[in-house]
Amino acid sequence: MRAASLPAATDTIVALSSAPGPSLRAIVRLSGPRAFSIVESVFQPQDASARVSFGQVRLDRSELEFSAVRYQFLENRSYTGELLVELHLVGSPPLVEALLEELEARGARAAGPGEFTRRAFLSGRLDLAQAEGVCALVSSSGEAQRRQAMNTLSGGPSRVIHELIDSCKEVAALWVAALDFAEEEDIEEDTIGEGVQLLQSLRERFEALIVSPPEEVAGEGLLSVAICGPAGAGKSTLFNRLVGSDQAIVSSSPGTTRDILEGHCEFEGIRFRILDTVGVREVGEGVERQALDRLEEILDGVSLRLVVLDASRFPDRSVLEFVETVASPRLLVVNKTDLAPADPVLQAFDRLPERVVTLSVQEGDGLDVLRETLLEFVGSGMGTASGAVLGARQRSATVRALAAIDRSREVLESGLGVEVATIDLEEAIRFLGEVVGEVDTEDILDLVFQRFCIGK
Fold first, then answer.
1. What domains are there in the chain, each with its CATH number?
2. How far separated are the first and last CA of the chain, in Å rounded?
3. What is the DSSP string of 270-286?
4. Which whole number is the average pLDDT over 324-350?
5. Its pTM surpasses 0.70
6. Residue 329, preceding peptide bond in cis (omega within 30° of 0)
7. Are the CB atoms for 91 and 24 separated by under 8 Å?
């Protein structure tokens, strides 16, 4: 069922903007064309012309009178881009409730979830990605999550997305210009060759953004990491080391783990959800087959995949093939370096962009490097220049944009021409526009802002 749209921003809304419950101070916020006049009807300021003024609130309905501080913001200086007023008063829930009832009786409407931020978006004060950063900031549970949310709110992902949009538009403009000279074959051939190169460059920038750490870090605060790889590579021992307990049964016989184990750990304020998965090997039907089927589902749902390889059992063609099937973002972990050198493994995967960590879980060597690498993944997007963190909705739109870029390149390479390729390129631009809210899709706006709490 489609969520009901919030009313247009022609009325004045009110809500408690601070945390509910008893407190030293409560903040009641109004936004809209009548915000000033509604507050004036209940508030007697000591200085009527001042932006910030002490004064008395008088409530006719409840016959209450109390002190408060009024903050007034004009449209060009307010969070919402509208007239905005805040009343700061003693954080007594009965007092706050009485004030809200009085303000609503005088013409204000109770705000819906995220409606203040939605109005900030509609007025151009924030783009959609920044608005989602507000929600992430409110729900952040630690310093690292707060930093990531502030990066989103300050426009980190938005800048990267706008750069990609501009680059796509530049390529489209190049192709449109080429169509004006369509009768000159040399020009079109040159344009196709240049277009393929430009799209490949765009693809690399898309991939760098997509593999950045996801919304879990900025919002929920738990980064899901799956440990996967061949049977007998030491995955369960690594799992026990990371979570700090012997949850997984460890045996010298490969394939001990038959089910998915879950544990939690924390490094420097970042909380991780670690999953120990079944070892990959040739199996028949039964429990092991079911576990391997579930492995694929688990790997699709996590933020990072630790692919653990056994240095003492390399090279192995099946291992190479398995690594190729594990989607990014992934981190290759070469274990058992106390038994064999890691060089053959490193050489085999030298062409891959991911960083490779070498360690011996049994001896404890290299575990600190692995923890540091996990923190780097959270903090900087595995080396991406932007360090932008995409939420689930933003990531989905960006992945669809990348698919459109790939289709556009395939069209060029098949010889169908730039006119057909432009259709997919324009679709990529539209998907990117969904990330920052340049595409007017009411369903998307409802989905984003209903995640907010009242008063934000």
1. 13-126 (3.30.1360.120), 143-212+390-437 (1.20.120.430), 216-380 (3.40.50.300)
2. 24
3. EEEEEEE-PPB----SS
4. 82
5. no
6. yes
7. yes
